[in-house]
Amino acid sequence: MKAFYLTLLFSLFSFLGFAQKSVLQGRITDKNKNPLAYASVLLERTVRGVQSNLDGDFSMSDIPSGTYTIKVTMLGYEEETRTVVLLPGETEEVDFVLSEEPLWIDSFELLSSRGILGQEKLPEVEDFRINAGKKNEVIRIRDLDANLAMNNSRQIFGRTPGISIWENDGSGIQLGVASRGLSPNRSWEFNVRMNGYDITPDPMGYPEAYFSPPMEVVEKIEIIRGASSLQYGPQFGGLLNFVLRKPDQSTRFTAESLNTFGSNGLFSTFNYVGGTEGKWSYTAYYQKRVGQGWRENGYFNTDHAHAEVSYAASNRLKLGFEATYMTTESQQPGGLTDELFNQDARQSSRSRNWFSTPWFVPSFSAQYILSPKSQLNWKVFGTIAERNSVGFMKAINLEDDLGNRQVDRDFYTTYGSELRMTTEYSLFGLNNNLASGLRYFNGHIDRKQRGVGDAGTEMNFELAAEENFPRDLDFRNTNFAAFAENVFRFSDKFLLTAGLRLERIQSENQGQFGINDGVPVILEPVSRSRSFVLGGVGAEYHVTSTTEFYSNLSQAYRPVLISDLTPPATTDVIDPNLEDARGYNFDLGYRGNIGTVFNFDVSYFYLNYANRIGTVTQLNSEGQSYQFRTNLGESVSRGMEAYFEFDPVTAIFKSSRYGYLHVFASLAFVDAKYQDFVITSLVDGQLAERNLKGNQVENAPKKINRFGATYRFKDFSLTWQLSDIGEAFADASNTLAPNATATAGLIPSYQVQDLSASYTFRKKYSLKAGVNNLTDERYFTRRAGGYPGPGLMPADGRTFYTTLGFKF
After folding, report:
1. How many contiguous H segments (helices) and E segments (strands) does the chain have?
2. Per-residue pLDDT tens over the stretch 51-84
3. Which option is the CATH number for 18-101: 1.10.10.10, 1.10.620.20, 3.40.50.300, 2.60.40.1120?
4. N or C: which end of the chain has fewer CB within 10 A?
C-alpha cells in the first residue's frame, strides 16, 4: 500500500511537472521598437491571460498543448492576433509590434489623450452584464490627483455629474453619496458592491454601507444609474461597484508601499503585494490609518486587510477566493447647534461617543467558458460584521451629564450566491447578447439597542452590571431573484435592450421591543412575503463612430426596511399592508467625443419614487394619539446631468514641449419635489392635515456643480477643483429657521476648493501632496437626528497631506 501511494504521488508530480513545460513568451513593442508595458495578452476562448512588464516582455506557463489564438490589446494601439500551435514541452516565442490607434478602442469605451483623462463609459457587454443603453460612468482612481488615503469623496467623485455627498466623516471610514435627489445616508439608495458582490449588511432590509475599501487599492469605481435595477435589484440610485486591483499579471512578485502624513496627526500606511506564477495569481494588502480628526474628540484608528488568490484549473475554468477584514475605532465628536457652529466649527461637546464596525467579507468565485459564445460566472459571498456604538445620545442642546452611556449593537450574518451567464448569438447576420442570472440571499440581523453602558470616556460596548438590552430584535430576510436582459442589434448603429427581473422577498421581524415598569414588551411578530416583476427597455444609436444617443426606462423599487418594521415607541403602529416603494428611472442622453480633445455626456433624467413610507399622527378610539407608519405618497426628481472635458493645448497646438492641460465641468440641476404626500400632526388636541406637494425633497440640493483643471508635464501633474453646491433642506417640511436641536433647518450653499499634485520618478517612486479645502471654508452638508450627531455636522476645514510611495 505504501508503495502504491508513493507511485501515485510520483505520478502526480510527474504530471504537474509535464504540464508546466508548455510556455508561451515574447515581447511587445511599438513600430519604433520601444517596449510597451502593461499590454494585455489573452488566449482567446480560455481564461488564461497575462500582461507585459516594464520591458515589454510577457510569459505564460503551464499551458496544455494545442492550437491557440493570442490576442494583444493596449489602450491607444490597434489590436493584434496571432495563431500558434503549442506542442508538449515546447517554449514558443511570439513577438508583437503594435500600431497606434488614433482615436478609440472597441467602439468608444475609453478616451485617453495627452490632456484628457476622461470620465469613462462601460463597454456595451462586459463582466457578465449588459451596459448598453444605460447611463453609466467609470472612475479610474489611478488617474486622479486626490487624497486617496482619506477616501476624499469630493475629489474621487468630482467628475461624476449629480453626485451629492455628505462630508461629515473626515476619517474616510464611511461613504455617503447619492444622486438625483436621493438621500446620501451611508449610500443606502445605491446597491453597493465590491468586485461584484454585496458588502452591505442586507441590500433588502438594511442597505447602509458601513464599509468602504481603501481607495489606494481600488482600481476603478463603476456607477450604473437606476437602470441597473434589472440586473442588480433593489435600488433607485443604481449600482456602485468598487473594483479592486487585480493580481499583477506581468511579474511573479511586485510590492508597493504608500505612506501618508497629514494634518491633525494623520498617518496612513498602505502596503500591497501581488503577482502571477503559472496558473496561480495572488494579491494582498494591508492599510493602517490613524489620526486625531479636524474637530475635537475626532480620533480614528482603522485597519484594512485583504487577500485574493485565483487558479486557472483548466483553459475553461478559473477559480478564485478573496477575503476582506476591517476593524475600526472611531471617536465621534457629535453635532453642534447653529450658534456653536458659528462660534467655532471645530469644537465638540461630546467626548464619550464611540463607533466601531468590525467587518469580514469572504467570497468565492468560479468562471467557466461553456463555449466560444457562452460563459458562466458563479459567486458565493457572505458578511460577518457588527455595528457598535456607545455614547450620550440626547439632543445636542443638552449637556452631557457624564452618567451611564447608551450602548447599541448590531450583529450581521449574511450569505448569498449569484449565478450569471452571458451568451452571444447571431440573428439576421448581427451579433446579439443575452445576460441572465439567478440570485439567492439570506440575511440575519440581531439588533440590541438602548443598553445601559458605563460612565467612562473610552470605547467600551459592555453593559453595566446586571443590565440587559431593553430592545432585542431579530430580523431575517430571504431573497430569490431571476433576471434576463437582451441586446437586440438592428444595425451597426442601432440597438435595443429589453429585460425582466423576478423578485421574491420574505421578511421577518420579532423580539423584545422594550421594558415597561420592569416588564418586557414583546413585539408582535411581523412576517411579509411578496413577489413581483420589474421590466425595462433601453436603446443606443451611434450617430458617428465616437458619439451616441442613449435612453433607458427601468422600473425600480425599495423594499420595506428593518427600520420601517420597527416602531420608535410602544404606542406606534405599523401598517399591516405596508408596501415596498415603487417607481422608475428614465434617461435620455448624448455622449461621446470629438477628436482627441473633447469628451462629453449630456443627459436628462426623470425619477419617480412612489409609495414612499412616512409617519402620520392618528387618534385611537379613546382619543389618544399615536404614530402610524404607512405609504404616504410620491416624489419626482427631474433634471439635467452634464460632463464636459476639453484639452485646449492639443486642440490648438497638436503637441507641446511644455506639458498639457485639461479642464472639466461636471454639472447637475436637480428638481426633486414631493407630489401628493399627506401628513398629519396633533395641534391643540386636534388632528391637522397638510400636504407636502411642491416641497423640495430633503437633502437634495438643486445645484451640484464641480469644475477643475489638470496640468501634466511628463511625470508631474497638478489638479485644482472647485465644488459649488446649492442649498438644501434637512426635513420634508422645508424648515428654514434651525430648531433648537439643529436637526431641522436650511443647509446653506457652499463652495470649496482642493489642490493636489503628484510626481513619479523612474516609475518606482512617487510623491503626492495636496491641500483639501484650500480657502478653509466653514460649511456643513448634514443635520443628523442620531448617530453620528445628533445636530449639525460640520465638514472638515483646511487640511494638508503628503504621500511617499515606492514599488519594486
Report:
1. 5, 46
2. 888 888 888 888 888 889 999 988 778 889 999 9
3. 2.60.40.1120
4. N
